[in-house]
Amino acid sequence: MRLFQYTVETAMESGDRKHEIDKTKKTFPLYIGLATGFCGSFTSFSTFITDAFLALTNALPSPSPTSPYHTVALHAMHSRNGGHSFLATMGILIIQPAVSLAALKTGAHVAIAVEPVLPGLPMRMLHRVLDPFSVFLGWSAWLGAVFLCIWPPERAWRNHATFAVAFAPPGALLRFHLSTHLNACIASFPLGTFIANIFGTMIEGTCMDLQHSSMIVANVPGVDAVACAVLQGVIFGFCGCATTVSTWVAELNGLRRRHAWFYGLTSVAVALAIQVVIMGSMGWMVGFDQHCQVGAA
Asked: How far apart are CA 32 and CA 249, in angstroms?
């Protein structure tokens, strides 16, 4: 009985300690910057859903074997039957979360393995040196990206980097504030992350329609290249940082099994249905025009 009581008390103390650690680390700016900022912006839920829709409609572009940053044109792609498109869609919807969950578990094991050899960071240095420097570095990098959008050394930079970097901070901040204020509303359903992912997916679908609509972008003489670059920057920057797969997967891992299945399936189903309505309505009724090319601006 004493052994059982000791085991239970130890487990409870360990669980309470883990809860306190999880609660405390989320207040550190360095942790927020790495988890919400870098990891959340490095992964994109909206692109994941858009790829699933493009696979469903046999419009997912293949990378060019000879030219980086370019893809094979849609007219050069071979058509396939509906069964192959369905399998391609299922492959994206299954492989993406599965690989992300595996990466999350791998990262957790790596962190446990290297924890004894990693030096600790003094709190005084974090608060007095690293935090103010991060604020200065963040504002400087964002203003530098804005200036490069206005005066780019190379025109192709606008499509590949500068507009995306300029639109990225607003997307990341929107996701952070939505998660901070709304995730606690429903314990079994992270509402803030869900709204951020759905909203970013809607914006990406709208920008994709504008990019590929010959009636809108292609008929604006003189500004079509800049318009294409801005829309590409919104897709890569704002939508890519407003939506996240890493946080979504971490939340799935932390929920109970039933709640995780409901949250994950609802997120994917609602987002994919929105892309079918937004992109599918124009693609099937009007058709996509290949006027905007990523390397054209």
From this structure: 17
